[in-house]
Amino acid sequence: MSLKLNLDKLDLQIIQAMMEDAEISYADLGKKLFVSGGTIHVRIKKLEEQNIVKGRKLAVDLKALGYDVIAFIGIYLEKSSLYDAVAKELRSIPEIVRLNYTTGNYSMFAEIVTKDIQQLRFVLHDKLQNIKGIERTETFISLEESFSRNVVVDQ
């Protein structure tokens, strides 16, 4: 079901600016967009109430914290009807940072972040393979992340 959102150019400019720098103050953003800081505050509140803006996240260099392995896991389900139950189980595994329901060869595609290969093996062997409904998995280890970015919103 598609919900028609009533967003104007200012809303989209606010979203784009905050995706680039979530720490910018409402006053500074207002100056940049030629409106008051109060207007920015009201607009952000409206965007949060519509679940367009879902908090602000800190960008962290995981490698600097010792998380050296990023892997992508293609998950084959025994039946696609098991998706919700399996997704609920996968949510309980903290090393899984992203999960998508997909078309193509896999039913699901997950991103896993671990400190080392031994931890990845533990997650795959002891956690994932014990989930009822998972038929098998295929693992892809990332050798390097070339870039990560947000989409540019249409204005």
UniProtKB/TrEMBL annotation:
<dbReference type="InterPro" id="IPR011008">
    <property type="entry name" value="Dimeric_a/b-barrel"/>
</dbReference>
<dbReference type="GO" id="GO:0005829">
    <property type="term" value="C:cytosol"/>
</dbReference>
<dbReference type="InterPro" id="IPR036388">
    <property type="entry name" value="WH-like_DNA-bd_sf"/>
</dbReference>
<protein>
    <submittedName>
        <fullName>Lrp/AsnC family transcriptional regulator for asnA, asnC and gidA</fullName>
    </submittedName>
</protein>
<dbReference type="Pfam" id="PF01037">
    <property type="entry name" value="AsnC_trans_reg"/>
</dbReference>
<keyword id="KW-0805">Transcription regulation</keyword>
<dbReference type="InterPro" id="IPR000485">
    <property type="entry name" value="AsnC-type_HTH_dom"/>
</dbReference>
<dbReference type="Pfam" id="PF13404">
    <property type="entry name" value="HTH_AsnC-type"/>
</dbReference>
<dbReference type="InterPro" id="IPR019887">
    <property type="entry name" value="Tscrpt_reg_AsnC/Lrp_C"/>
</dbReference>
<dbReference type="GO" id="GO:0043565">
    <property type="term" value="F:sequence-specific DNA binding"/>
</dbReference>
<feature type="domain" description="HTH asnC-type">
    <location>
        <begin position="7"/>
        <end position="68"/>
    </location>
</feature>
<dbReference type="GO" id="GO:0043200">
    <property type="term" value="P:response to amino acid"/>
</dbReference>
<dbReference type="InterPro" id="IPR019888">
    <property type="entry name" value="Tscrpt_reg_AsnC-like"/>
</dbReference>
<keyword id="KW-0238">DNA-binding</keyword>
<keyword id="KW-0804">Transcription</keyword>
<dbReference type="InterPro" id="IPR036390">
    <property type="entry name" value="WH_DNA-bd_sf"/>
</dbReference>
